[in-house]
Amino acid sequence: MHILAPVSRYQDILPLIDAGADEFYCGIIPEQVVYKDINCHAGDTASNFSSYNELQKSIDVAHAHRKKLFVTLNMPFIIPEQYRDIDSLLGTIIKIQTDAIIVSDIGFLNYVKARYPGLETHLSVVAGATNTYAIDFFREMGVQRIVLPDHLSLEEIEQISARKQNLAIEIFVLNNKCFNWECVCGFHHWPVSDKPRIPLPVDFLQKTFSLLPAHMVEKLFNLSFIQNLFEIFLQSQKHLQGCKLNYTVSLSPGISDQTHLLQQRRIQQLLRAAHSWRRMNQCGACSLFMAKTYGIDVIKLDGRYLPLERKVKDVSFIRRCHDALDCTADKNEFSRICKEEFKNIYGYPCRTQQCYYPELFQNHA
Amino acid sequence: MPEKALYTKNICSITDKAADGFTRIYFGNEFCEHLIPSWEIIKEVLDTCHGSQRAFTLVTPMVTDKGISTLYSLFERLSDTPLMAGALYEVVANDIGVIQLLNQKFPSLQPIAGRLLSKQRRDPRIIGCVDPFGKNDLPLLGHSQFSPLFIEYLHKKNVHRVEIDNLLQGINDTFIPEKLDVSLYFPYTYLTTSRMCFFNQSSTLVLKDAIFCRNHECQKYRHFELHHVRMPMPILLKGNTQFFENRVFPDDVQKWGINRIIYEKDIPL
């Protein structure tokens, strides 16, 4: 299995090669492009290359080390008015030898296949290939690789992988897993504020929470003081997705019975648990054991927006877990190794609530 | 005048007086494969439709392979059912795999591209949001229903009708699909959906409990409202799905090829 790592700066490439990355993906929003909303994190400058020159240098370095680099154009809303504009971008990135593009819009994929039949295309997670018939559909459309939605269970991944034929299959195992199905989510990622972004000290919080039992952390997040702190942080966010708002739950008009009141309280607590835990780093490294058995081709790491130091940790961690697959044929032993590596790399133990796949939740529970 | 379809999950409402004037019944579920109705219930709805001279459309959700298998057996039975006035039974597909399945195995069923396949920007905050890139991208907000090249591909798959939501930003002027029928859902606009269901009861209140549907808990409760100062209207949460309500009907719907209005009696979940 290959490890596909996110990059957003030329400086990312060499350290990530050293850490064990096999391939790279990136976004690019060059000045020359008129309509810039062309990938799912287009509005976030930390997630994208800003010039062809930087992309060219990165590709050159990657190729010199026999690594591939792919460019994502995975906005699901690409419309014909943008095609001409993106066409010039495509012409340039093909010329500088980008190895493949990642797309999700079916109309745009149709366009790319007609205009650049030789260009390798990968289907983004945002396209939502959730079953084997969808895989057939996209195979017919000519994609070479498919990123499976991260809400699929391992059993479902196995079923799809068994019918992949000539396609390469990628799965996610690390970092932010959207709470909603990304492929059909109507919330936009556009800025709703001009305020500068205050980064959440994820590693610090993780370490702090790891010292407490899970139920206590849940209780902590339900304290109004903690909620207010989160709210202050959230209000400072420039890119505040609708799914990340700290909602208050109320009953629908005219309903006030005890059953609904209880459910209201439950939903509010679940919402807060989701709200807080989804900000933490999710991990499905234990699933590499099954992924190898299922014939998964690529392990994809989320996090174009992350600082280089964190990207290096992520790649090193997955590389070590991946290499451990050769040392054991026992699933539980592999899981133990992954947990140990997690603690070694990140400095705190992995937690049940961070498990990426439902099966792993159950195994840990 | 656009055709009037009634979207209901309650069989009684088909024969209700309030259903007068509706010539088509939408039945099924768009958002959860655990809520795909059984053939026995579908048959009952079909018989009621036959009895009241109404056309029938089966609504289907985004599915995994397990859902595909459930739908496969329903489609087998539906395609064996005698037609009503010679019209094909319609199936609203909200998953590209379901369109592929219908195409490959059930050519006698008429596929429709459901609203989950229309990549619309549905966020209510879209009114008045900040353009991150200057002014160029803001006009694009209203677009993004079905692009012509997507439609071209859908035609190849025997899809001749697409469905859209009634969004706050309205329907963009450039959305005039040729040779394509369009349906509009009213008044509940779909916003987002998840594999995790907030309605699942659990004693431990950890997130993992929300993932697995147990006893169709969502069917036991009314919807709940989610409020936040940044959201201009309440979000309506039912089960795994969020909606908002937009009762402002767009002007001159036929201009955009909209020839069917799907009235949602309740939140469609």
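Chain A has two domains: 2-177+282-364, 202-277.
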